[in-house]
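Supplementary Text 2. Reproducibility record for the structural model of the 410-residue chain.

All settings were left at their defaults, and a single model was retained for analysis rather than an ensemble. We include the record here because the model underlies the residue-level annotations in Supplementary Table 4.
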Amino acid sequence: MKLILIHEMVQIALSAIWANKLRSFLTILGNVVAVSSIITLVSLIQGITEEVESVILSEVGADAFLVDRRGIMRSEEDLERTRNNPRITLADAEAIRRFASGVTAVMAEGRRSGEVRYRQHVLESVRIQGVTEEFIRFSTFNAEIGRLMTPAEVRRKRNVAVLGSDTADRLFGALDPIDRQVKIRGVPFRVIGVSRPQGSSFGQSQDEFAVVPLGAFQRLFGSRTALGLRVQPADPGEIDRAIGETTVALRVERRLKASEDDNFGIFTSETALRIFNQATAGIFAVLVGVVGLALVVAGIVIMNIMLMAVSERTKEIGLRKALGARRQDILWQMLSESVALSVLGGATGTALGAAAALALDRFAPVPAVVHPWSVLLAITMTAAVGLFFGLYPAARAAALDPIDALGRAD
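Retained model, structure tokens:
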């Protein structure tokens, strides 16, 4: 089909839409609602997925795995089964170092919340993290001011602290925090470094924390505080081997019999991401079903409106055929109108959905990402709806006999 003919058909289609503005608006409304909904929700799901992936990778690491008391809880049965698991201890970390040859580093860490004070400035619920000397190997941030802790400071359980950038800003303002003393739960700690800003996640600051040696942490919160272990394989490509050796080392340390289940949890970033993706896949499937149903309803509306248009324009169609228009010319003309209606609704819905997603990302603590593929998919889907549901009215218009059409119009 020549480009000039396509251009002419599009012009006629848009003129017909403009001539019936109210009816056209009501026709495209279904597409607008369906497409704006899918763009907004897909953007939210995509944004949340990317944010969760970022958090998981920063917490676990792409080439490391975690050991804790319970592992990932998928159900109430898992929660009940692991209720009596013993806490992770430094002896467990030492057992892994001693028996797991495929492991190159093990860091024990504890996490609690506590008050941090500098003079009259008080932060009541700061994340306090106690770490062993492998901290530098596993750290997910660098110091923007000052430095990180040395292995010697950790071994000697010195009262030194590395603060998150938000913690430092709120406590010290424009003052230089290095070598100043803060009180963590009433105990003085010397500030030796401030982390580079890491931003926020789901509206929660990732920079409000204090990292201290594990020995000092245990003096603050008690030696029986629950610990977790970060384990780094000697070869990232053999992480399964490292996990297997770690499992054996812990079972030996805990004197578990062959018939007994593991009383500890091990998971990687890949495991956590797989579980999260399984959960979002179900949500996405429901979303696709609901939006698909909405598009079908919108398509049926377009088909009915186009059938009404064929009935109203019987004389026009008969006249065009009498003047030499072929069946395929009428067919393509009516199809172009139904596709134009559908795509117009899709484009409007895409713009509204993208605007809503960007507004949520900007003003609400919910990440949203509008990807080009989702916009392209929305436009393609609406064009397909217009083409499919416009086919029957277009075929009816093309099949009209010019003499009957002109006679019926009179």
